[in-house]
């Protein structure tokens, strides 16, 4: 039944350089070459708060720690961040416009 299916977003709590925690919703994951990237937006439990936010797309890169656990880390290279961010925006735009479903 369609009523029984509920959308549950993938929510991650990330900690910034100052130790501040913030919840993010994972929109997409993309493999480019040997690297893995994540597209996230700030998550708000209250939909009205989401409407007030600018909803900037956050792009993070996968990195394995010393225990072989995957971490989401910031991308320091501006060109890489721009290139991957544009790839995510194109992919997400196509999906939400319906062009990505054939």
Give the SSE map.
Layout: E1 11-15, E2 21-32, E3 35-42, H1 47-52, E4 58-64, E5 70-73, H2 78-96
Antiparallel strand pairs: 1-2, 2-3, 3-4, 4-5
Organism: Merdimmobilis hominis
Protein name: DUF1292 domain-containing protein
InterPro entries: UPF0473
Helix/strand/pairing category: alpha+beta
Query: Strand count, sense and closure of the main sheet?
Result: 5 strands, antiparallel
Poorly predicted parts: none
Count of helical regions: 2
What is the average per-residue confidence, as pLDDT, rounded to a whole number?
Answer: 85
Task: Give your account of this protein's structure.
The chain has 102 residues and is an alpha+beta fold. The protein has one domain. 25% of the residues lie in helices and 35% in strands. It contains two helices and five strands. The protein has helices at 47-52, 78-96, and strands at 11-15, 21-32, 35-42, 58-64, 70-73. It has a five-stranded antiparallel β-sheet with strand order 1-2-3-4-5. A hairpin with a 5-residue loop joins strand 4 (58-64) and strand 5 (70-73). It is globular. It starts with 10 loop residues before the first strand and ends in a 6-residue tail after the last helix.
What are the main properties of this structure?
DUF1292 domain-containing protein, 2 helices, 35% strand, 25% helix, alpha+beta, 102 residues, globular
Condensed summary:
With 102 residues, the chain is of the alpha+beta class. The chain is built from two helices and five strands, in the order E-E-E-H-E-E-H. Strand 4 and strand 5 (70-73) form a beta hairpin.
């Amino acid at each position: 039944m369609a009523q029984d299916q509920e959308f549950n977003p993938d929510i991650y709590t990330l900690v910034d350089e100052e130790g501040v925690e913030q919840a993010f919703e994972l929109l997409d994951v993309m493999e480019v070459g040997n690297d893995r990237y994540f597209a996230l937006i700030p998550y708000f439990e209250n939909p009205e708060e989401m409407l007030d936010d600018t909803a900037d797309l956050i792009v993070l890169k996968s990195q394995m720690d010393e225990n072989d656990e995957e971490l989401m880390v910031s991308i320091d290279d501006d060109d890489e961040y721009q290139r991957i961010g544009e790839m995510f925006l194109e992919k997400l735009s196509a999906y939400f416009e319906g062009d990505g479903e054939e």
